[in-house]
Specification:
Layout lengths: L5 E4 L3 E3 L6 E3 L4 E4 H13 L3 H13 L3 H4 L7 E2 L4 E5 L6 E5 L2 H16 L15 H6 L7 H15 L9 H14 L2 H8 L4 H8 L1 H12 L3
Antiparallel strand pairs: 1-4, 2-3, 5-6, 6-7
Helix pairs in contact: 1-2, 2-4, 2-7, 8-9
Amino acid sequence: MATYRLCYKKGKVGYSKNHAAYIQREDGYQSKEEDLKKIREYLKYKNKITFLVFVNIGVNVGLRISDLSTLRFENIDRRSWTYTLIEKKTKKKRLIKFNAVCKKSIKELEKYYEELEYSTKEGYLFKSLSPYQKKLRLDKPFTINGVSKEFKKIEEYLNIPYPLGSHSLRKTWGKNVYDATLNIALIMKAFNHSSPGITLKYIGIEEEDINKLYEGIEI
C-alpha cells in the first residue's frame, strides 16, 4: 500500500477572498506520515470499513468531500478503473484514475456491503450506515457534517493535537503529489484553482518553503 503523509493546518486558520486559499495566522503547515497510519489502524480496529475506504480513496484522488462522498458503483469504468464526474463546485468535468490502493479498497468495500446485504452493482460507495438506515437498506451518502464529526471522533480518540477536517484528505493528496513531482501546475489543474499561488497556499508549500529559507541561511 502506498504511504502518504496526512496534511493539515495547525492553529487558527482564516480564508482569503478566494475560499480555496488558506491563510495561516499562527503555527506553520504540518505534515505527519505516522498519523495517517494511526487513523487507518484505528478505523480498521473499530471496523469502520466504509470510512476507512473513504480515507484511503480520498488521499489517492484529491477530490472535494462534496464530490468524493457521492461516487457511485455503477459509474466506475471497470475496464480502465476510471471515473468521470462533474464537480459540484466548479461544474467542470473531471476524470479520475483509481490506482492500486483505490482498487483494493473498493473491492474490500464491496465485500463488506455484500455481508450487509447491500447491492454493489449500483448505489453510493460511501453509505451512511446508521442502525435505522441499515435496517431499511437505505442508500444515503456521507454528508460533510457527518465526515467532520467522524474526524472529530478520530482526533479525540487518537489524541491528535491538530484539527482534521473536510479538506485534510484533498490536501494530503496535493502535498504528496507536489513532493513527488514538484509540478504545481499539475496540481493546480487537478484542483481547478485559478493560480499556482492559491494551490501553494492551499497545500502549505509557501509557508513551509519560507521557513526552510530562514533556517537554511545564516549570515
